[in-house]
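Supplementary Note 3. Input sequence used for the single-chain structure prediction.
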Amino acid sequence: MAIPLIRYRPARATGQVSARWGVLFGRLIAPLPGDYPSTGEVVRAGRLAAAALTAADATVPLDEVRVLPPVTGNQQFLCQGVNYESHVRESGLDPADLPFNTIFAKAPSCLSGPYDEVVRPPHVRLLDYEIELGLVLGRDLGAGTEVHAERLHEVLAGVTIVNDISARDVQLPQGQFYKGKSYRGFGPAGPLLLLLEPEEWRRWPDLHMRLTVNGELRQDAYCREMLHPPHRTLTELSAMHDVRAGDLVATGTPAGCALRAPGRLATFVMRHFVSEAAKWRLFVKAAQRDPSYLQPGDVVELSIGTDDGQLDLGKQRTIVAAGT
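The predicted structure, written as discrete structure tokens, is reproduced below.
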């Protein structure tokens, strides 16, 4: 049975109070014995202790803690782009022209809790959201590790919810994914790191992703729609560089983002008659009129789980705030 692991700190804690890990039972947390400073350490050495906890051990009210991201800041934050056909097409691209797996990274310092504010930097006007399934490594992957679809449990520990917040007016005009997606707070994660049993890993395609803004459903898709599934992505990553236990891989987003490709006529005109700099000025100016982009005060809610409720990653809820 899946283990809903949670990382937290007392809500009224002062000074440098160490974060704790626990297992969530309803609205109560059963503290995990021992000290695990990183996600890598808890998935390597804490799983058996977590599995041994029961509801009788749950003594910490969820309402009295601050829930932290289940991935610590000393882990890699790796990402896949355009990994859903629906998102490829809404971006104005043809999946046939993108046979490769688009991989990039976000700064781990952008990780934030599932209920923390998302602060829009003062110079950003096109703030976008992206619901993604996050995979958390259960062991190190060295050079040339081949991961098989039916053996994900041998390399992965669990799954979590990720919101890949993006400043589109930085990312696109400057051509910098890392810069446009790595501001502090641009990586809400959690609330749970759901540790899966071997047989439960077969159900990752059934995970249903939903994102709403102010109650309006914006994104609604199943993880089975991925173009590049986890086993192939992990194999490709290990061929490039080392991946460590506790590292996070965000697997891409489906259609429904605020970002949309301009119409065919506008695309043709900008491609053939407008300079590159002018093209992006026009894009930003037009996009600022689109109410889909996040504004201060907006409430963003994300959930991922199977429709039968057997696997439930919880619900993430953040409010957008204006930066100063």
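The longest strand covers residues 312-322. The chain has eight helices and 20 strands.
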